[in-house]
Amino acid sequence: MILRSGFRSLRSFSLVRVSTDTQETRRQHDALDPICITVFEEKVSGTLSVDKRPGLLRALGYLRPDDLLTVLEVDRLGRNLLEGLFVLNELFERGVGVKVLTGIAAGEHTERSLILDLALALAEDRRRDISRKTRNGLEAARRRGTTGGRPTVVDPDKRAAILARHTTGQSIREIARGVGISVGAVHRIITENRNQPPHTRQAHDNTGPNDTPTSDHPQPGTHNTGADTNRTTRPTL
Fold this sequence. Notes:
about 40% helix; elongated; 5-stranded mixed sheet; about 240 residues; alpha/beta
């Protein structure tokens, strides 16, 4: 392992990574922007392979021997041990150094070391622990009769569009693609509407403007045969 206080290159780049679009990158930018000439950002999982990480690919396209790639924490390179080691090996084989600002691997590195391997292994273990606790929490919530996770937002217009499309015979997957929400959300809306009492269901007709609406009272010139005019047809999923 080689740790040095200064690196030969004057070209210092940095990589900012978060896993989802909803996560903030400000903390990483605050630490990296002042000390690097170019900051590459990506919002993808660190468990993905290099060829599926656009920010890292752009960085690799810029980096030259004796350059320095700086990250706030070593798990910005990869939350998966195997992928993190692959990224480190790729950088070191190109003669590119890695600088980590925080954590047990803080410092400048020019070759693979036990401390880097350990830092990546701990990052992967934390990710697994978070996933396990999330699954356990969701399972506990289901046992209590509640549903965990982020609720799907379906406004009245989307609900109306879902039910209207369903009455025309579109499949749930077709509706989901057309409206732009998940298959599960479409299925839930259709099921909820089907389970409502007939007089409270949201009606969506396929008739034209000249069709005669139904009524409980006989229209002039017609006879009430006593048939049940309030029968409803169960939609087919």
